[in-house]
DNA sequence: TTGTACGCGTTATCAG
DNA sequence: CTGATAACGCGTACAA
């Protein structure tokens, strides 16, 4: 059995409650006894038992992480290690621990969340994704359990604290960027439409085209998985069009990589024949040939701010709903150029 | 306040202890009362409080994950999401939750582990890396706390349950593969020598050369970070040699990607001028140009088996030390070929 | 400034 | 088969 507060109390010749107060650094304890108690703790190698503390104080100093389905391709995106790092850092700063749950199916994930929450394992939860219809989010909301989402909630945006980019504006900007480069035939390759981020980006793309009075063609809008294989299918469809696009807005770097490869195989040159701009600016985007022009969305900060605002919320229940927007930034590399004039592929 | 066992007891007209037994599905309770109690639980929407249960039973049904330093480049490797998925699945099967700890420095990580362990937050720990000198491992060992490591422990291999590949053999095999292809000038690009996996792979490489009586040149052995930039530096060194290698054994796909890019910039063609084989077979390895021949090390299984064997150990303290070797497999793609005879780069 | 006593929600022991 | 009752380790009114 481990060293408890009682052992320390005995050694220091004080009551257990005094030891408890020393741990909490209560101002109502004399420096002298504090010192005495601390020495005893040191001598015995005492470490507080979090479980007991949690039970007594009804708070765990732990936050729960809800990941998307582990079978989901999204899970493999380098996005995750990075947000995780951000969250972890934000949590560490406030001495919070991390509790995770994943699962293969939505139900598994949901059960995991319920266990964390009802089981009292965590004080709050951060959702690492934002889907269009989400059981987990609904549950958390109804239960009034503290949580924040990374991304933009599909509904009740005003009532849910979230950390997000301005994906609408970002996509509008990059589309404009391509337009200003002289492109008029610009296609959009997005991921799963169940992810809110996808719809936001699509909207931004459409807005830019409309602002510039460019035609908005359905054939130019493609949705595939957030990954490689997705990109490949998309490209083939696009290039077989009568008037193939001269530029592509791709919703994710990984997909862009797939696009790049397929293009390469088809003998289409980037950026000479076709320009590409994508999102996230993960490490890989500078490793591709050519390096990708990509929107840096501050992934680390998304996580960091999410953790911080969740903890605030946990520690102060009347904290107002917040919406934190992380700045984005277009990182220009070599995948964009003025459009070709008259190419035949 | 949430629904407790007492509320259920009251509604079902039984004692709290009876409810507890029903939850544990004790065989000594009549089916009739079980049914009655279950109905009450249902009606009240009861969920057991894990914290209280942990305190009483001195076990948490949670396992702790120790990640490498978040500032470490290794952290960004696609390896992690995948092991994580494996661990998560292994844990889910046995209804264990996951508790994580990371940190920027070794000390932060160490403190995190101590808190998990002494704080009684977890029943066991899995180390997601294996370093040459590791404070955390030493601590866990001295405390006789259940843990398993993913990778090969540097010392006390016989006394530590671990899940690993046979990296020595794997590297020996791929080196032989290159030799049999006709290569004689084969270089090795490895990662951080503090990681045990690096030294294992280096050893395997050397063994193959020795077995075939090929010279073992120091200039052919390079260590860089486990990432992109590392790869680039390495290649330049290698190609500026008097007799540059015709084949490369690269210890990680990500590094190999960097190598590929640098080679491309220098106008060196893969596999025509130089062959490459690397490790891990992460998703990216088939997305590179050319697709990488890579050793699949069963990352998911590493995690899965680690979780399973840890849980076994936790549930049965006298479980013997185990060493689980996950099979590897060479996935041949397009980065290897017979060597060039007489090329001038 | 410090000690006493009780409660947090369960499990486990021991009667009955 | 079931019900009291005592832990589990700590926080915290309430007393002193």
UniProtKB/TrEMBL annotation, chains A, B:
* Start and end residues of each HTH lacI-type domain: 3-57
Which Gene3D superfamilies has this protein been placed in? 3.40.50.2300, lambda repressor-like DNA-binding domains
Q: Which PROSITE patterns match?
A: HTH_LACI_2
Q: Which CDD domains match?
A: HTH_LacI, PBP1_MalR-like
InterPro entries reported in the protein's UniProt record: HTH_LacI (IPR000843), LacI/GalR-like_sensor (IPR046335), Lambda_DNA-bd_dom_sf (IPR010982), Peripla_BP_I (IPR028082)
Question: What domain of life is recorded for the organism?
Answer: Bacteria
- A Pfam short name: LacI
Q: Write out the entry's keywords from A to Z.
A: DNA-binding, Transcription, Transcription regulation
Coiled-coil stretches noted in the UniProt entry, renumbered to this chain: none
Q: Which GO terms describe its molecular function?
A: DNA-binding transcription factor activity; transcription cis-regulatory region binding
Q: Where are its TM segments located? A: none
| The keyword Transmembrane belongs to this UniProt entry's keyword annotation | no
**PANTHER family in the record:** HTH-TYPE TRANSCRIPTIONAL REGULATOR GALS, LACI-RELATED TRANSCRIPTIONAL REPRESSOR
What name does UniProt use for this protein?
Answer: Catabolite control protein A
């Amino acid at each position: 059995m481990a060293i408890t507060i009682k052992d320390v109390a005995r050694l220091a010749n004080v009551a257990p409650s005094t030891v408890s107060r020393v741990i909490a650094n209560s101002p109502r304890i004399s420096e002298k006894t504090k010192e005495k108690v601390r020495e005893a703790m040191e001598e015995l190698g005492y470490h507080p038992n979090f479980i007991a503390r949690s039970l007594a104080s009804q708070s765990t100093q732990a936050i729960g992480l809800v990941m998307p389905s582990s079978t989901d391709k999204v899970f493999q995106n380098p996005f995750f290690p990075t947000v995780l790092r951000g969250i972890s850092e934000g949590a560490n700063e406030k001495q919070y621990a991390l509790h995770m749950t994943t699962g293969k199916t939505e139900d598994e994930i949901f059960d995991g969340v319920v266990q964390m929450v009802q089981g009292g394992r965590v004080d709050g939860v951060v959702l690492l994704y934002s889907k269009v219809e989400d059981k987990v989010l609904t549950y958390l909301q109804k239960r009034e359990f503290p949580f924040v989402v990374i991304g933009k909630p599909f509904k009740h945006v005003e009532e849910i604290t979230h950390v997000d980019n301005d994906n609408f504006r970002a996509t509008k900007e990059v589309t404009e960027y391509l337009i200003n480069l002289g492109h008029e035939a610009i296609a959009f390759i997005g991921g799963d439409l169940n992810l809110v981020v996808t719809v936001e980006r699509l909207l931004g793309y459409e807005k830019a085209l409309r602002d510039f009075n460019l035609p908005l063609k359905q054939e130019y809008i493609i949705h595939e998985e957030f990954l490689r294989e997705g990109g490949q299918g998309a490209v083939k469809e696009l290039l077989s069009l009568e008037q193939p696009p001269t530029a592509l807005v791709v919703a994710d770097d990984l997909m862009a990589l797939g696009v790049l490869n397929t293009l390469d195989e088809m003998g289409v040159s980037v950026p000479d024949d076709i320009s590409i701009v994508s999102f996230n600016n993960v490490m890989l985007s500078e490793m591709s040939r050519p390096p990708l022009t990509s929107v840096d969305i501050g992934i680390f900060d998304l996580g960091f701010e999410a953790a911080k605002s969740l903890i605030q919320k946990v520690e102060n229940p009347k904290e107002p709903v917040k919406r934190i927007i992380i700045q984005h930034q277009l990182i220009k590399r070599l995948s964009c150029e003025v459009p070709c004039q008259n190419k035949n592929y």
